[in-house]
Design a protein that fits this description.
The protein is an alpha/beta fold. Helices cover about 35% and strands about 15% of the residues. It has a 4-stranded parallel beta sheet, with helices on one face. The protein has a 4-stranded parallel beta sheet with strand order 9-8-7-10, sandwiched between helices.
Amino acid sequence: MKYLVVKGGILGFGDRLESLKMAVNYAIHNNLQIYVDWRDPVWSHGSEDFYTYFKLVNMPVLNSLSDIPEDATYYPPHWKGRINDQLTIEYTTEHKDANLNIGMLNRPFDADVIVYSSIGDRLLFTDSTFFGNVFRVVDNRILEKVRYHASRKPLAQSWGVHIRGTDRTKTVNRRMMSIQSIVTNFTMMGGMNMKNMVVVSDDREQTQIWKNYYPDSYVVSEASLKNSNIVGNHYIGKETLNVSKDDMNVDLLVDFFVLTSCERVFTTVRDSRFAQEARRLHPHVGRILSGV
């Protein structure tokens, strides 16, 4: 059997999902056992990994990196004997041979183990049905909180607003302009009459600006707003967080799946992968949150 190991790289959650979807598609079409290794410091400060919150079903999976035979060959060859190394910005700078431009995973590789570092070009899928068939949330904390928010607001009849700030809007003028832009779009689409408006955000100041326009908006985010930081919350170090990384991950994932459950999704940042993937996975969110 051959294997595909997916490293988390140095990516935020939306980028990770884009990369993971491409990897899942590649593994399915090439009959590879897949293992998702998200123990890098952007996602984990210790015990958190992909399998803390998710699982993959209905496809071949590898249960542990230790199950890979010792005599297995690797592509890129860099990963032979280093499969447990975690990617950081410093690591990718020091080890240029760790990625070797695998890029879009669009051809066979002559090795037993293919290691995808999630760096480089990605394929985008207009239909995410294949991913909805295999991707599941298994952390009950996330499932229960999404259900709680659904009991407070009819998410399927709500407009979701993703207010992305921190490292994307470092100046007061940029914060004001990004909010004014989405408010204009909302007004043009009839948002002034929208009763159910759900907001997720990583930026306290921008959220307050938004509330000045739409004071009745239902704000979901908690830990991410408390830790709002100009470097981007996913890059905050362990010593700076006032909650655990696990709490931050749960908060982020609740935000994402609440947003995904909404009828329409809007964002202050046009190229936000977080919002884009929420839109793409919306038709499949019921299966993803089913836990089975």
